[in-house]
Design brief:
Distance between the termini: 29 Å
Order of helices and strands: EHEHEHEHEHEHHHE
Number of helices: 8
Strand content: 5-15%
Helix content: 40-55%
Strand order of the largest sheet: 3-2-1-4-5-6-7
Length: 247
């Protein structure tokens, strides 16, 4: 399917591996000019080899100045940022009893304020051009909190509130804002969280299988397409049916 976004400039944050990298690959296959980013230069260089024509920028989006600088450098490389994919790694695991109060600020910086900073730096220019796509990679935890991930549950829920509000404010400017809520996909983060329990976690999924990051990337690319221009303010689970709610 032609997504109608060939030639568009796309910035994908935290895209040296996992779902971010899969999204960057899908956008490149759709004809976008893509900037990928990450904190590890070596890992980023390797990732760039799998994203046709990609420009790579070393950046840490958990720092608000780093997120703003990433947008500035990506704009210089692309000419304009038409598509913004916000993303960041997950904070440490823990529950209410084991997580100290001072751990929350780092989680908010990583999974909430990074989203705000990236959008503040990139969205106004989209509004001026009357076209833009923002897709945030968050977590199914915003609909169904995940045990022992209290920091992620808290910060990503805040990001979802911000994104819904932003979607309503910029909809008339031709800019859509949506989020994707991944469940269990076969990524390094999943291996870190589940370790020796990986097989048990996989068998507990309704599909009896982990998600393929490449499939997730294609869903993200579709939300950036011309076909999805009337889809905004949506928080869409991509979780193989793991979310149990009706709405």
């Amino acid at each position: 399917m032609d997504l109608g976004i060939a030639g568009r400039g796309a910035l994908v944050a935290a895209s040296s591996a996992g779902l971010g990298l899969a999204t960057a690959q899908a956008l490149a296959l759709a004809g976008c000019r893509v900037v990928i980013s990450g904190r590890d230069e070596g890992r980023l260089r390797t990732a760039a080899e799998s994203v046709p024509g990609a420009t790579s920028i070393v950046a840490d989006v958990s720092d608000q100045a780093g997120a703003t600088r990433l947008v500035d450098e990506a704009r210089a490389a692309l000419g304009a940022i038409d598509i913004l994919i916000t993303n960041a790694g997950g904070p440490p695991a823990g529950n209410f009893a084991s997580t100290p109060l001072d751990a929350y600020q780092g989680a908010l910086d990583l999974n909430l304020l990074s989203v705000v900073a990236l959008c503040r730096a990139a969205v106004p220019a989209m509004q001026e051009r009357r076209w833009g796509r923002v897709v945030a990679i968050t977590s199914i935890a915003v609909k169904q909190p995940i045990a022992h991930l209290i920091l992620s549950n808290t910060a990503r829920a805040g990001a979802t509130g911000f994104l819904k509000t932003l979607a309503l404010e910029v909809a008339s400017d031709g800019v859509t804002v949506n989020s994707l809520l991944p469940g269990l996909h076969r990524t390094d983060r999943l291996r870190q969280l589940y370790g020796d329990s990986l097989d048990t976690a996989e068998s507990s999924s309704p599909t009896r299988a982990f998600g393929d990051p490449a499939d997730f990337g294609r869903v993200a690319a579709f939300l950036c397409s011309e076909h999805a221009r009337f889809v905004t303010g949506v928080a869409l689970p991509v979780d193989g049916g793991a979310y149990l709610g009706l709405l």
